[in-house]
Amino acid sequence: MNQFEKIQQLTGNLPPFFPTEKVQLQNAFNRVLQEDVIADLNMPPFNKSAMDGYACRLEDIANELEVLEVINAGKIASVKIGKNQCVKIMTGAAVPPECDCVFMVEDAEELHGNKVRCTNLNTMKNICYLGEDYKKGDILLKKGALINVPQMAVLAGAGYAEVWVSKRPKVTVIATGSELVSPSETPKPGQIRNSNSSQVVTQLRKMNLEVVAELTLVDDYELLTKSFKKALESSDFVVFTGGASVGDFDFIPEILKEQGFKIYWDHTGIKPGNPMTFSEKDGKFVFGLSGNPVSSFVQFELIAKPVICKLLGSNYTPLRVKTRMNFTYQRKNANRLAIIPVVIDSAGAISEIPFHGSAHINALAFANALLEVPLGDSTIQNNEFAYVRPL
Ligand code: AMP
Ligand code: MG
């Protein structure tokens, strides 16, 4: 088993950790559902007209029909519909029990004397039948689902005005590096703007975690230790970027060890982004991501995100699709899983974009997917199939 597979296995074995809470439906978007959602009704709850039209008996469709009344959505018929009779009916209204067909207004010719005729004898029935979408007692959403836009509608339709979800973890993001200056500054020689904080904070917010603090710190062991301890008081997660490697000023792994954290892993087997730690102590979790922006992006996307999801009790699995290469990919050293920013074009093929490696963050701004080049593969030929992860 290679290192990335080991990480995936360790991640898969993490138990749900965060407590649950009940929230109002309007606050449930982008939270992890913590109960099965059960239908309390059939859907639709009655035979429902799918069209604005006329409801009648199909056997009478070729005849002139007497129009008895008009039924709006929300109303039910007040009369019985007999032979050669019909009601005018609106989309969403209950189809009277005697009727088995609704022909559309567009297929109707109104005649004198309150009569109507269907001009399309091949009309569809245009009825949504009771319970055809779901039945009372059906499980509509499973515990562990991420509440996205359609899930919001499903919850509302099933009467979940309040819903059990995972609590939002609190996170402190600490960018480390004596070379870092803020985005508002012009870097002096040897300095670089801190782009990781903006990136990682957004990745966390996209997952609906609460970022409680954002620090940029120089590579100073004492300062980092002090700030780390303080961050642990207010946060469930601390995410470091930079300082995760083996340089003289890469203090994060050392600090974690000194503070008694259990290190689950200290490298990923991925290129870019090999040095990365995940560690835990007393229910506090720490990611030590690489300093290079593409590395930290990839580490978050492929590793930190699934870990956070698992701890939140989410059943998230990343979308990976196998599709055709539109270029030949080659590399010299195939000792790691390579992750390459690419574009999936409108034909579904994988196209190349300029990419120079772990610092080339603006390449990602043009990518819509990450290509996976498996460990051991030095070439993927044009027209071969490969896995991509849409972004
Ligand atoms: P490190 O992982 O600390 O060795 O950093 C690796 C590379 O990433 C160095 O070139 C750093 O200057 C750069 N880097 C580190 N942190 C950041 C950051 N927050 N934003 C942009 N680049 C960074
Ligand atoms: Mg550094």
Outline the structure in words.
The protein has 391 residues and is α+β, with helices and mostly antiparallel strands. It is 19% helix and 31% strand. The chain has 7 helices and 28 strands. A 6-stranded mixed beta sheet has the order 7-4-6-5-9-8, with no helix packed on it. A hairpin with a 2-residue loop joins strand 20 and strand 21 (284-289). Helix 1 packs parallel to helix 6. The longest helix is centred in the last third of the chain and has 19 residues, at 293-311. It is elongated, with a radius of gyration of 30 Å. The model has no long low-confidence stretch (mean pLDDT 97).
Fraction in beta strands: 25-35%
Oligomer: single chain
The DSSP helix count reads 7
Look at the helices and sheets and give the structural class.
alpha+beta
- What are the distinct ligands in this entry? adenosine monophosphate, magnesium ion
Count the strands? 28
Q: What number is the mean pLDDT?
A: 97
- The level of helicity is 10-25%
The largest beta-sheet arranges its strands as 7-4-6-5-9-8
Distance between the termini: 26 Å
Low-confidence stretches: none
Cα-based radius of gyration, to the nearest Å: 30 Å
- Outline: elongated
Summarize the biggest pleated sheet.
6 strands, mixed
What structural keywords apply?
391 residues, alpha+beta, 6-stranded mixed sheet, binds adenosine monophosphate
Secondary structure layout:
Layout: H1 3-12, E1 20-24, E2 37-38, E3 48-49, E4 53-56, E5 65-71, E6 85-89, E7 101-104, E8 108-111, E9 115-118, E10 127-128, E11 139-141, H2 149-157, E12 162-166, E13 170-176, E14 180-181, E15 192-193, H3 196-206, E16 210-217, H4 221-234, E17 237-241, H5 252-258, E18 262-267, E19 270-271, E20 275-281, E21 284-289, H6 293-311, E22 321-324, E23 329-330, E24 337-344, E25 350-352, H7 361-364, E26 369-373, E27 379-380, E28 385-390
Parallel strand pairs: 5-6, 13-16, 13-17, 14-15, 17-21, 19-24
Antiparallel strand pairs: 1-12, 2-11, 3-10, 4-6, 4-7, 5-9, 8-9, 18-20, 20-21, 22-28, 23-27, 24-25, 24-26, 26-28
Helix pairs in contact: 1-6, 3-6
The structure holds adenosine monophosphate (AMP) and magnesium ion.
